[in-house]
Amino acid sequence: MKRKQIEYEKAIALRKTGKSITKIAKLLSVSVSIVSIWSKEVELTEEQKEQLKRRRVRVRHLRRLAKQSHLEKISRVKKLLKDAKAEIKPLSKQELFLTGIALYWAEGFKSVKEGRLGFCNSDPRMIKFIIKWFEKALKIRREDFILRTEFNETHKDRTEEIKHFWSKLTGIHLSQFEKPFYHRSVWLRDYPNREDYFGVLRVRVRKSSELLNKTRGWINGISQAV
User: Fold this and answer.
1) Torsions phi, psi for 145 (to 5 deg)
2) Which listed residue, 7, 77, 166, 225, has the most CB atoms within 10 A of its CB?
3) Which H or E run includes 72?
4) How far is CA 148 from CA 50, 66, 199, 213, in A?
5) In the prediction, which pLDDT does 114 show?
C-alpha cells in the first residue's frame, strides 16, 4: 500500500473521531489543505462540531492571554530599566576612578609584556566610557590614543564605514587609526542586520608603561579592599 493511501486512511479515521483538520495535519506531517480535501466527505456529529468550536474558542482565549502576558512582561522590563537607570547618579571623581579600574580589570590589557595601556571591546557604550575614563581619571591626552578596528573579513567592504563609526563615537580623528585587522574565521550562520555590526575596537595609549604598572597596582588594591 502506498504511503499516501495509508495517510489518507489515517486522516479519515482521525476525522471521524472529531479531530480538527489542523491537528490531523500535524499528526500525519502533511499539509492542512491535503487533509481538508481528504476529509471533506466526512460528516461530523453535532457534538463533535460543538467540541471543535469550544476548542477553537479556548485556543483563541489562551493566545490572547499569552499575548497579554508578553506585553505585560515587556512593560515590566521597560519600567525596571527606567527605574534602575534613574538610580545611577553622576559619578564623583573617586567613583569614576574606581569604576574605570574595575572595568579595566575586566577588559583591559594587564600583562607586563603589553608595555602600555590597552582596552578592547565591541560594546560602544563601554568604549565610550573607557575613553572618558582615560581622559578624566588618568589625564590621557586625546592625541595619545591609537585605535584599531577588528572585524570579520566578510565585512571588508564596510571598512571605511566601520572606521568612521568608531571615530565618531570616540571623537578621535581617523589619522590615529591603524590598519584594520580582519578576522578570517568562518561564521556558521548569517547574522541579521548586517549594517549594525561594527566588530571590536582596540584602544592603546602611547608611552603609558608607567601608567600600566600603576593600573595593575590599583587593580591589586581593589582586589584586597573588600
Assistant:
1) -85, 140
2) 166
3) helix 46-87
4) 68, 47, 11, 23
5) 83
Question: How many beta carbons lie within 10 A of that of residue 218, not counting itself?
Answer: 17
Among 87, 126, 124, 79, residue whose Cα is nearest residue 106: 126
- Give, for 82, the enclosing helix (H) or strand (E): helix 46-87
Cβ-proximal residues to 157 (8 Å cutoff; 6+ apart), any chain: none
Question: What pTM does this model have?
Answer: 0.72
pLDDT tens digits for range 151-182: 999 999 999 999 999 999 999 999 999 999 99
* Cα 214 to the center of its chain, rounded Å: 35
DSSP 182: E
Q: Which amino acid is at 78?
A: K
Most distant pair of Cα atoms in the chain: their distance: 88
Residues 6+ apart with CB under 8 A from 45: 18
Quick: pLDDT tens for 9-62: 888 999 889 899 999 999 998 999 999 999 888 888 889 989 989 988 998 999
| Burial tier of 149 (Cβ tally within 10 Å: 0-12, 13-18, 19+) | buried
- Cα separation, 158 vs 151, whole angstroms: 10
- What is the rounded CA–CA span in Å between residue 78 and residue 88? 16
Taking the CA atoms of residue 106, residue 109, residue 112 and residue 115 in that order, the dihedral angle to the nearest 10 degrees is: -150
Backbone angles phi, psi at 123, to 5 degrees: -80, 115
Of 130, 91, 132, 125, nearest to 107 by C-alpha is 130
23 CB burial (10 A radius; 0-12, 13-18, 19+): middle
